[in-house]
Amino acid sequence: MFCSTTALSALHVKDATLSALHVNDATALERTFAHLTAPALETLEMGLGGRTPDTARTIGRALLRRKVHAVLDKSNDFGDVEAGLDIALPEAMRSRCLKQYGGLSPTTWRDCLSRLKTLSGDSREQLWSYVIAHPMTEYVPNQCQRCGHIVPDETTPGYTDAEVGISEVPPTASERPFVRGGYYRGARSAVAFLLRCPECGDESRWFRSSDAQVILNPNRWGRLCGEQEDLRAALARHLSVPLRAILPLDWDHVWSETRREADGAWVACQGPGDAPAANFAGRLDEGIGAWTRVIAVSADVEGTSDVTEEYLSCCSAGGRADERLDEEMPRYRETVSAARADASGSATQAKTLNGHVLHRAGFGREEVTCILRQAVVDHGVVGWWEWQEEEEEEEEEEEERGGG
Length: 404
Prior knowledge:
Elements: H1 5-9, H2 17-20, H3 26-34, H4 38-47, H5 53-74, H6 81-85, H7 91-101, H8 109-120, H9 124-133, H10 161-164, E1 166-169, E2 182-183, E3 187-188, E4 192-196, E5 203-207, H11 212-215, H12 225-239, E6 243-249, E7 255-259, E8 266-268, E9 293-297, E10 305-306, H13 308-311, H14 329-341, H15 354-361, H16 365-378, H17 390-403
Antiparallel strand pairs: 1-4, 2-3, 4-5, 6-7, 6-9, 7-8, 9-10
Helix pairs in contact: 5-15, 5-16, 8-9
């Protein structure tokens, strides 16, 4: 049954799942769930006593809760947005913004933001459309910071890290507070990257971060979709714009949705050069693997839910996608279903098994939404690996009534 906010708030915490998984290292558990491959899943199942529906439910609940807490935890890592807005812009960026938006030549991102506020008038929705289309939030591929040579995304033979010229290096003491792990040409821990440019021979150094001061670096510093969405979330909070993160399971991507002023509906954000998020189902035709589910995560409980159906439906059916995809939707649904049923992970783009676990657990849309919303309620109170099963609480209440 779908859990209302009131029902969710009534649940209590019990023993940590960490103990049930026979893992005493929270960092190791985090790494396991961050990239849930077939070997990682097998290890978890062995710790829980074997591959059973109950095991799948335990792991499925944990992975969904971790997704929510990871998004909400990031809000503590956005750093000083105000300081980021005061970063001085190079001359080329000043000229570009002046040409595109007019007004006075901006010297900082704050000047740019002030110009966007003037252009948008009193419309917060219009302001946000300007922000996500502005150079301050655009996608920037990792590249040589001298000549602009772009590091290829592919990792096939001929494009290994060594062959494209990058290597992992330890962060310096000054970098360490800002560095985060993530997926970049494969799963990565919190490391810095060194590029020896094959074009000009110069060396460039960068790292992944959620800190606005780092992401707002205008000097050819990489800003991948993860950093792009972290920055948008930081700026949305700074500007009091409602925003929620959209995460596809088993696919390395993230985007955001905001509320439309006219009717309060959530709509996918899209800046110039962004992949068409509303038509995310169409990316199943790229030949790089499938995704298995799509979830929305917000600090607002009611804004957090399973939105898979919205991304597998066209606008006329209450979904996100353009009508031109309508004839393809049955095929896309079959692709997603097949990926969920695949126990190897080979069918998914990230080669992970999140959707497969949820499939084996028998979690439908309402139960996924219930788990996600409970995780929002629990955030900052208990760990993502801790929860009280609803049915257990009902049994306890029944016992209390019987004993009274």
